Structure formats: C-alpha cells, structure tokens
Amino acid sequence: MNKIAVFCSASDAIEPVFMEKARELGAWLGQHRKWLVYGGSNTGLMEALARSATENGAMIMGVVPTKLEEHGRVSDLLDVTFHSVNLSDRKDIMLQESDVMVALPGGIGTLDEVFHVMAACSIGYHQKKVIFYNVEGFWNDLLAFLNRLEETHFVHRPLKNYFEVANTLEELTRLLE
C-alpha cells in the first residue's frame, strides 16, 4: 500500500497526545516513502500529520474543497492538489486516490468520511478498509456502537469486513505494510 488516506481533525484545540500521534504517523509515512492523501487543511491534526510526513520524505496529496480555499485554510505543504467542489467530491477523490484509509481522532467530518468509505464497501463499490487508529481509546464508544449494530441486526454483514482497529503505532504500521 503506497497511497494512504488519513481522515482526522482540523482542530487546533485538542489534547497534545493526538498531535504527537499524528506526527508519529507522518514520520512513519515519510520514512517508508508513502504518499499521504488527506484533506489539505493547514490546521489541527491535518497540518501536524502533513508537516511530519513531508519532513520525513513523504509525498503529500491534498484534496481541497472550495470552501477551504475560500477561507485560506489550505496547507502550503502539498505536492499535488486536487480541487473538489464540495465534501462529497472530496471523499470520492480521496477514496479513488488511496489504497487504504486511516481514521485518526476527528470530529463530524472524520465520521462522515469513515462512514462514506464503509457504506460504499458494504455494497461493493470497492474493497478498501478503514483502520481506526484508536489513540487513547478515542474510538472505543464508536466501536461499541458498531458492535451493537451487528448484535441488533441493523447491518447485513460483519462490519469487521470494512474496518480494522489499531491501538498502537506498531499495530497500525503492521496493517499498512
């Protein structure tokens, strides 16, 4: 897997541990000469990840929606820029351009991206998985809810077909190799 999409927070007001874990992942991407495919923002985990990745040799592909450009929120680290008209277009481009998706901690946008990928996989549009990087147990509640969906038969297939979980950088990188 050479092109790795990462969904994550654009917030700067989060705990430092999340920034550190984003930087660690970015360093690994660069050291292993991977492409980072991400939302192209110059804030939050997005910028921390991209800065570390580029400082360590990764190529950076930003998929930038029009609104991000209008608000001056585009990272200056991008090697390749895809312009998207909206968030739906952005998700489709990121999915198309990557081999696998990693979900770092994030908010509503990250959830939207994760569910977009999993829903498309569930009906056969692709076979790509999301890897939840469960930093500090961030995804535990969501993972429990996904399990409940299975237990109550609100999904037709095991959701593990569409995602994996990594609790440490070592677990994550094993899944990405």
TrEMBL record:
Q: Which InterPro entries match?
A: LOG, LOG_fam
Name of the molecule in the record: Cytokinin riboside 5'-monophosphate phosphoribohydrolase
MF terms (GO), sorted A to Z: AMP nucleosidase activity
Instruction: List keywords of the entry alphabetically.
Output: Cytokinin biosynthesis, Hydrolase
- Organism name: Phocaeicola plebeius
Q: Its GO CC terms? A: cytosol
Report TM segments.
Answer: none
**Family indicated by similarity:** Belongs to the LOG family.
